[in-house]
Amino acid sequence: MSDLDRHPSAERCGGEAAHGPVRDLLPARETALGGSTVVRRLLPSMGRRMVGAWCFVDHYGPDDIAGEPGMQVPPHPHMGLQTVSWLHQGEVLHRDSLGSLQTVRPYELGLMTSGRAISHSEESPREHARFLHGAQLWVALPDAHRHREPAFEHHAELPRVTAAGLDAHLILGTLDGATSPGTVHTPIVGADLALTEGSRHRLPLEPEFEYAVLTMSGLTEVDGVRLEPGSMLYLGCGRRELPLHAHTDASLLLLGGEPFEEKLVMWWNFIGRSGEEITQARTDWEQSSRFGEVHGYDGARLHAPELPPLPLKPRGRVR
């Protein structure tokens, strides 16, 4: 997925996390993604840029795309990150410069590691389901892994943690003894929690991780805070468990990880460590160098927006 903002700001990421439990509701802003899809962008936000290594969170839908093109994101580049495609409804057809061609369906993991450079496109198939609902997430790669060769993984079956009124799919990392097959390069966790109406749970957490919860659907209380669909609650560090209460059938995304200590520059679809790296990446993409070519997409690729007039500098994770 691409940031389609034609005037993207320099997102300065890295630095300190909250040292103890907090309950900060993060604001969302709506932005057009492509085709008929509008997303709610929750990370980076005005108050926080990262949760562990998670550095970008878009929530979209559920959208009725019957008779519409649905998601249409032309070929675009990535550098220094992983993308996670996660669906509750619909399908997304992924193509990339490695030659990957994969339809990602609900509760399947589409994981792309950009490493030094990759390009890809995402679109709703021509014959697609009526509704589209999901999330697109990015994970920042640590310095030791950000120049690695690019890769794409698709996992149709994921481990699950179940209890009365709870069914959790492990997207990445480990939760309550279950571990996702998705490749990670920093200690993180991502899990989709389906809750039945009236259920209450105390979810085990790692106290050294910081966490946030995104409400995909339904009404819930997370540590006593009432959440509606599309809202994201930052929870800080130092928790061993998380109280959950579902007022209706509901679904949450739990995101967490060790606080990411490296300072980053995130601009458009690139993550680097200096403004010079970002400038070079933009030049390489515009000159059709390094990022490869996506074959099979019916349309032109995206052009990079203009760089901001101010220098791009690495900064901390919170504003």
From TrEMBL:
<protein>
    <submittedName>
        <fullName>Pirin family protein</fullName>
    </submittedName>
</protein>
<feature type="domain" description="Pirin C-terminal">
    <location>
        <begin position="191"/>
        <end position="288"/>
    </location>
</feature>
<dbReference type="InterPro" id="IPR011051">
    <property type="entry name" value="RmlC_Cupin_sf"/>
</dbReference>
<comment type="similarity">
    <text>Belongs to the pirin family.</text>
</comment>
<feature type="region of interest" description="Disordered">
    <location>
        <begin position="1"/>
        <end position="21"/>
    </location>
</feature>
<dbReference type="InterPro" id="IPR014710">
    <property type="entry name" value="RmlC-like_jellyroll"/>
</dbReference>
<feature type="domain" description="Pirin N-terminal">
    <location>
        <begin position="40"/>
        <end position="139"/>
    </location>
</feature>
<dbReference type="InterPro" id="IPR012093">
    <property type="entry name" value="Pirin"/>
</dbReference>
<dbReference type="InterPro" id="IPR008778">
    <property type="entry name" value="Pirin_C_dom"/>
</dbReference>
<dbReference type="Pfam" id="PF02678">
    <property type="entry name" value="Pirin"/>
</dbReference>
<dbReference type="Pfam" id="PF05726">
    <property type="entry name" value="Pirin_C"/>
</dbReference>
<dbReference type="InterPro" id="IPR003829">
    <property type="entry name" value="Pirin_N_dom"/>
</dbReference>
<feature type="compositionally biased region" description="Basic and acidic residues">
    <location>
        <begin position="1"/>
        <end position="14"/>
    </location>
</feature>
